[in-house]
Amino acid sequence: MSRINVNRLVSIIIIPVLIMGLLFSTPLSALVLAAPTDSSETTTDKTEDSKEDEEKKEKEEKQKKEAEKSALESSIKEKEAQINNAKNEKNALAKGKTDVEKIKQSLEKSKADLSQYVSELDAQVVSIEEKIEDLKGQITVKEAEIEQAKEDLAEAIAIKDHQYECMKKRVQALYEQGDSFYLELLLKSKGLGDFLNQMDYIEDLSKYDDRMFKEYEETVEYVTICEAELEEEEELLQATKKAAEDEQAAVEELIAQKEAEIAAVQDEIVDQERAIREYEAEIAEQNATISELERIVAEEKKALENMRVYDGGAFCWPCPAYTRVSSDFGNRVHPTLKINLFHNGVDLAAPAGSNILAAYDGEVVSASYTGAMGNYVMIDHGGGLYTVYMHASKLNVKEGQEVKRGDVIAFVGSTGRSTGNHLHFSVRVNGEYVSPWNYIVKP
Questions:
Q1: Fewer CB in 10 Å around end: N or C, the chain?
Q2: Residue 347 vs residues 58, 236, 321, 342: alpha-carbon distances, Å
Q3: Across the strands, what pairs with 370?
């Protein structure tokens, strides 16, 4: 069975090959070896296709990451702009609140001044009220005196009226009797003694008449004086009372006016306090907005930092056209301090103003000045890898700026602790300085 199969297999494979060899004059060995050759070429093609696919995928993945990175950067910039706007609004609100607080303080002072003035007026009112009470006491006394004076006056008037009636009757009798009255008295005398007595009587009667007339005149004068004094006392008393009441009314009106002003000021203070509370609420809202935006920005920056991964690409020489190394990485005697110190970078000598290039793609995380480093730039390349460029005469980038390999980021100088124009180039990995020669190659 197996032999039949082998023979059949030979007839199927070998015979056609021989026939083809005869037909096309091709050696058998060439035909037999042709199959492996075709298989190798196919494998190579497949490998090249696979490599192209991988490169395409890597390119697509890189483009995707770049798009995500760009979206994050745009989002961060947008939110940082929102944060700045919110801070500006917050500052404006804080200024408005300060202005309102100043107005409130001024109003509080006005209120205090008015309250002090009202207190002084109240003291005046108390004094006036005491004065009025004293006047009321005086009025009571005067009214009693006036009542007594009225009684005395009434009595005097009664006496006057009685005297008047007596005088009227006396005058009437004298008028009716005439001078014969005295003559009759004398003629009726019974002797000289009686005559003299009658004469004395007539004289006494005449004196009585004179005295009665005089008393009547005095009574009339007294009544007139009493009436005048009483009227004057009443007028003076009423005038004094009215003056005190007018003064009290004026002070009370002034107090009412000042209390109205205090009420108005208090209402305004309440309005200002309400405005302050509104400002505080808006400021708190802005603070909450700022905090939330800062939280989101921090998260997005963290995500961006995590997304930034050094891809292992080659660094460019950071100081083009100048290759002299004036001081290498490692221990050395410091040129200015004159002590043995570890040198954390390489010094590349170059003329002042020469271009300083970004060694690789990354983000500028610091572009500033210190007394030791002078003007310097630090670039984050991702994955904990940073490059530092020191002693520049001038910086050409800002913090947060994205740079590409070969971009001009600064210019050579001798700022900070330096003895001449050069670029101090350092590389940090995960917070530690490492030899720059691990990443750069001298041209």
A1: N
A2: 37, 111, 15, 13
A3: 374
Residue 193 host element (H or E): helix 192-307
Topology, domain 325-438? Glucose Permease (Domain IIA) (2.70.70)
Query: Facing residues of 281 across strands?
Result: none
Q: At 126, list the tokens.
A: 């108390």
State phi, psi for 365 to the nearest 5 degrees.
-95, -15
The answer to whether 425 and 441 have CB atoms below 8 angstroms apart is: no
Among 220, 216, 225, residue whose Cα is nearest residue 163: 216
Q: Cα separation of 140 and 147, whole Å? A: 10
Measured between alpha carbons, how far apart are the two ends of the chain, in Å? 75
Distance CA 325, CA 318 (A): 12
Residue 350 corresponds to which tokens in the numbers above?
């170059």
Q: How many CB atoms lie within 10 A of CB 109?
A: 11
CA distance 345 to 373: 12
Residue-wise pLDDT tens for the chain (443 aa)? 444 444 444 444 444 444 444 444 444 333 333 444 444 555 555 556 666 766 676 677 667 777 877 887 788 788 888 888 888 887 888 888 788 888 878 888 877 887 787 788 778 778 877 877 887 787 788 778 778 877 877 887 787 777 677 766 766 666 666 556 555 655 666 665 665 665 566 666 667 767 777 877 787 787 788 778 878 887 887 888 788 888 888 888 888 888 888 888 889 889 888 888 888 888 888 888 888 888 988 888 777 777 777 888 899 999 997 999 999 999 877 666 666 778 999 999 999 999 999 999 998 999 999 988 999 999 999 888 999 999 999 999 999 899 999 999 999 999 998 889 999 999 999 889 999 999 999 98
CA gap 127, 134 in Å, rounded: 10
